[in-house]
Amino acid sequence: MKSSQILLVAAALATGAVAAVAADETSLQLSIKDHRFSPAELHAPADKPIAIVVKNLDSTPEEFESKALKIEKVVAGAAEITVRLRPLKPGRYQFVGEYHEATAKGALVVE
């Protein structure tokens, strides 16, 4: 097999693996408006990868932070990010909007 054929086969296998992971992934939607998360509580199944799309509907930036999940990501005003999480065990994982912790609070409940 030529090296170009090997690369083509490797690329096809990698694409298939990514598609398989994406198909098994739980996708959740979260928005930030008036420095509050909506919904304030997300639910996801245990032992499956999770993708949380965070949409910031405010004009100012916010930092999505979770010490339990070991994540800190800034979401620019009027923008969105996707936070990808490894499969998690059942539990309640708190998160906050670090720039407005008094009002921007939420939790991911994994069951």
Radius of gyration: 17 Å
| CATH fold group | Immunoglobulin-like
What's the shape?
A: globular
Helix share bin: 10-25%
Q: Output the strand order for the largest sheet.
A: 3-9-8-5-6
Secondary-structure map:
Layout: H1 3-24, E1 26-33, E2 36-38, E3 41-44, E4 50-56, E5 62-66, E6 71-75, E7 80-85, E8 91-97, E9 105-110
Parallel strand pairs: 1-4, 3-9
Antiparallel strand pairs: 1-2, 4-7, 5-6, 5-8, 8-9
Structure description:
The protein has one domain (25-110): Immunoglobulin-like (Sandwich), CATH 2.60.40. Mean pLDDT is 89; it is low at 17-21. With 111 residues, it is of the alpha+beta class. The radius of gyration is 17 Å and the shape is globular. 20% of the residues lie in helices and 46% in strands. The chain has a 5-stranded mixed sheet, with no helix packed on it. 18% of the residues are buried. It has one helix at residues 3-24; strands spanning 26-33, 36-38, 41-44, 50-56, 62-66, 71-75, 80-85, 91-97, 105-110. The chain is built from 1 helix and 9 strands; from the N terminus they run H-E-E-E-E-E-E-E-E-E.
